[in-house]
Fold each of these.
Amino acid sequence: MQAQIQLTGGDEIAEFTGLWQWLTSERALTGTVRVVRRPTAEDELGGALDTLVLALSSAGAVAALSRALTVWLATRRADVTITVKASGEVKLDARRVKDQDIAPLLRQVLRAPDEH
């Protein structure tokens, strides 16, 4: 399964970089995280960082991603929203979603399509 994560709000470059570093430091996610840049617009000098893509090949990797995102969101001070897409889509707002609500939402969107 492949999961895509996009981020909006706060200092987007710093938050995106922070999330990328956070996820790549998770042992269970080693080698699964890559950055995808969006195409450059006519008035831009280069493509912006846009999406983190994770190749999740096991239930352990899915659980590790869920835990990592839950903790990362809990440490945010800025008004940051992440969108996670896999078999579905969920938007998680760091200031408006309670920690105990994050894990069930992520489990639902990160389930394999045949588990729905």
Amino acid sequence: MMRISTQMFFQRNVDSILNQQSKLSQQNIHLSTQKRVIHGSDDAVAIATIQRLKQNLSVGDQYIKNGKMAETANSLEDVSLTQITNILQRVRESIVKASNQTNGSAGREAIAKELEGLREELIGVANTRDGNSQYIFAGYQVDTQPFQTNEFGSIDYHGDNGNRSYKVGAGVLIQGNDSGAAIFTNIPEGNGTFVSEGSINNSGSGVIDAASVINKNVARDFVDQDYTIAITEPTLGADPEYSVYGLDDTVVTGNANVKISKVDLNDPNIANVNPSGVYPDVNSDITIEFVATANPNEFLIEINGVSSSPTVYDSSDTTTQEITIDGISIEVDGIPNATDQYTMTKYIEPTKYVEGQSIEFNGIKTEIKGNVQNLDNFTLRQSGEKDIFSTIQDTIDALRITGEDGASKAQRVMSLEMAHLQIDNAMSNVTGIHTSVGARMNTIDNQRESSLDFKLTNQKTLSNLEDLDMASAISEFKLQMSQLEISQQTYIQLQSLSLFKLI
């Protein structure tokens, strides 16, 4: 038989009271937080799901925040692209106005001044900053002003091609910006295929149009070639004739620009350097090659094995240099390497020039209008890329070409026509980017709705698992409190029991 001492009896009552107080305290915590599950011990099965749902909600909230940042970035770019489009439209209108041949020098200068203002305005937009003073068109180089004027007056890009992205959903990355290179600098020249030019040394009023590709299957085989249309008078006063030559890189490791600038078929030694056949004849090609000299900056040039000696090309001279060998002149600038080779090919033999008549070769069509003179030449070179600012500056320079003679007018007409095409290219490029910005903003809106729906679903599931049934909890709390009060009253009465009261 177990003896229960008075001390043990009292201790059990104390433990009971403390246990009920602890339970009441826990119930009070659940009531104050209105949560059924706070600790793993509350519901070992539900707690893992609750933690996962909370993590999902946290990730969803971050997606929504990222979406707001992406929306802000794209909205700012959207506004800037609208400004750019408006400026380019005004530039285009100015070029069209400048193309009117009734403009005198004063009128052209007024348009040039207007274009200078538009160019500065465009540079300002290109250097737009966001609310954090970061440049929006600098790629990843957000703290570096992307477009800066160099010592020659040209505009250099100091950003990169980076595009910042924001994760706005599971597996959904939204681009937040486009680099300045994509918007302002990587603009195709001319019509996007060719750039048509007349030599600044032309004495006639001939103007070449923007060439077009009329047979892509044929033109594809000659895609890397630049072409020269050379004008020659067979004899003094005779009707001029045109010939077409192509120039293609054969083995080139240097960084020189080479162009056929003149073909004088009346030179007594022209047969030494002129192809004797017309493509595809085996004799339609000749080789142009750079040959090293004792001076590393100087090169001899050989055309079909005929040397330019003693004339050399000096690569340390930054100006364009023209070198003539037996009637064929080439213009060179840049730094070549010894043994660099180019292939010159004749595509059309001397043919009588008729103003406005179609000139077709290698799947290409062009025409020349105006009066041409002996040794005039026109080129069709492959379109590269040019920044918008240079295009506007070239237009300004063209408007400031002095003179009202036929040659000066022809230079202005051709320069303005190419500028018109390049501004159209720039506007098309900006429009394409603007469209993609709009599509990105639509994606952000759609993803936000999806994230909010996902969040609501998770919150409902979490509430079902975690939230407290307040009516039931309050009833249980009151019952527990009553039990505690009974225990406390019982303990008080037990404490008053004493044999001394019976004496």
Amino acid sequence: MHLAYPAVLAALLFCVGLYGVLARRNAILVLMSVELMLNAVNLNLVAFDVWLRDALHAGQALTLFTIAIAAAEIGIGLAIVLMVHRNRGTADVDRLRDTAEPRGDATGDPTDSTAGTDGTDASDEKAEAAA
């Protein structure tokens, strides 16, 4: 078997996956593109294992390890994407840059948990009451 055929196919798969990661906006499609890239690596591992005729079949063992890691990554990634979609209403990657809750500052932002009702800091009010 020529090594060039699976190597070229793996390079094409990896390039398609890389394009998907860089160009797509939907988080599900980004996860699918990462899987394409991992499958390209798996194809290379098996092809080089066959070409080198390794007695221990290290390439195939690493491929099984990569498949297990990819399965765990997809499970956790899909769970995160579903929770983000449930909370934010979108799976658009550009709109999810800040996944933390919005922080308020001392200017009276109502989302600030330390702000008083009149815009002053609650810790300042407690310090004045103690004095």
